[in-house]
Each structure stands twice: as structure tokens, then as C-alpha cells.
Amino acid sequence: GENVEQHPSTLSVQEGDSAVIKCTYSDSASNYFPWYKQELGKGPQLIIDIRSNVGEKKDQRIAVTLNKTAKHFSLHITETQPEDSAVYFCAASTAHGNEKLTFGTGTRLTIIP
Amino acid sequence: ETGVTQSPTHLIKTRGQQVTLRCSSQSGHNTVSWYQQALGQGPQFIFQYYREEENGRGNFPPRFSGLQFPNYSSELNVNALELDDSALYLCASSSGGRSYNEQFFGPGTRLTVL
Fold first, then answer.
1. A88 with A21: CB under 8 angstroms?
2. A37, A75, A80, B101: which sits with the fewest CB atoms below 10 Å from its CB?
3. Quick check: B43 and A103 CB within 8 A?
4. How confident is the model at residue B1 (pLDDT cuts 50, 70, 90)?
5. A17-48: per-residue pLDDT in tens?
6. pLDDT for A67-94, tens place per residue?
7. Does A47 touch chain B (CB under 8 A)?
8. Taking the alpha carbons of B44, B95, B106, A37 in that order, is the dihedral positive or negative?
């Protein structure tokens, strides 16, 4: 089955700097890659996603890149703000009939004011 | 548009007991997926229901079972609770039952097994 690895497990950046989180996946049939933000005591919130027919997607300060050949994808957050502090999860889904998401182990991002 | 809701928020049970968790999907969504999130880990897929039928199952024993109702709300039942079942249980709703569809998560139910 699919295996998703995520790095780093913790990340601290100065407010205003950029943060990058990287994930690799194992199943070449995976075709959908969402990123979720989870704040303490809450469920994961979808912040951006990318499909396998696209190499990059951007939404304001957040961008995701996908390299299908290398089977890795990354989340980029620019001009970080204190409210970006949270745990971020990457996930992958394959086109095998249902929407099972396989998640990475998460990155705890701390923005230092 | 109403988001995904789950009940109860917190639950404490003892080993061997049974528990039922509930989820109401987002308006317009016909698919509900359940995930287990242990402390410090990413969510793990339990199973998915699409139009009242199970549509895929993860690596969980049969004592984890579910239902989806005509209004697309769903229940997760766990029998013979074990200490390792302590986790945050999340449901996510989406439309279509196929890949590519965005999944929106509820706030979760925190289950503690003593």
C-alpha cells in the first residue's frame, strides 16, 4: 500500500520568513495530494491540494509543488505569521475507487514573533 | 453551508465496552470516511461509506464497524474496546466516492479507554 513520509517533524521559523515542508510517497498511482493544517483540539483543515496533472499551485502565501518522477511534493509558506503555527499534514490518494487518504506523520510548525 | 459535525466531543470508556460515535456530513456530500488519529500521529484510514455502502476499508479489525444512513450521516461502532483504541476519531465528508474529491474533516471525538 501507499506510504507517505514527511520531513521535518518540527520546524521553527522567524515571523516573516518562509517555511518548507517536504513529503515523499511510494505509490506511483497516487494522483491527489492535499495538505491539512491542524490546530490544537481541532480537526484537520484543508489548506491546499494538487492533482497529478499539475506541477505547482499557489494560493496567496501558500504554494505546493509536485514532482511525479521523484514522487515528492512540498508545501511552501511565505511571509509566515504567528497564526501559521500548527501541525501540518501531507496526504496522498490513489485512483483505486475510493478516496482513502494516506497521511504523513506531521510537521509541528512554530512561528517565532 | 453546514460543516461536518461529530458527537460526542469527548468520551471515556473502560476496556471491553462498546462505543458509538456519530458524524453528520457537510451539506451536499454523500461520502463519509472515518480516521483514527493516535496522539502525535497522522490520521489512519478506517473505512469509507458512499451512498450507504462500505467503499473501502483500512487495516482495522472487524470490531470496528460502521453505518451510513439515507441522510448520509454515519456511525462508527467499536466493540470490545482495548487501551490502544484511545485516540481522536475523525470523520471527513466529500462528494462522489472517488479520488480527487476534497475531504472536509469534523472536529473529532476524543475517546479514552481506561
1. yes
2. B101
3. yes
4. low
5. 999 999 999 999 898 999 999 999 899 999 99
6. 999 999 999 999 999 999 999 999 998 7
7. no
8. positive
Residue A19 CB coordination number (10 Å): 18
B88: distance to nearest CA of chain A, Å?
A: 9
Residue whose cell numbers read 462508527: B76
Residue B39 zone, left/alpha/beta (φ > 0; ψ -120 to 50; rest): beta
Task: Please check whether residue A27 touches B, CB under 8 A.
Answer: no
A94/B contact by beta carbon, under 8 A: yes
The residue assigned the cell 483504541 is B85
Look at residue A8 and tell me whether its pLDDT is greater than 70: yes
List the beta strands (DSSP E) in B2-108.
5-7, 10-13, 19-24, 31-37, 44-50, 53-57, 64-68, 74-78, 87-94, 104-105
- Grid coordinates given for A26: 511510494
Asked if omega into B8 is within 30° of 0 (cis), the reply is yes
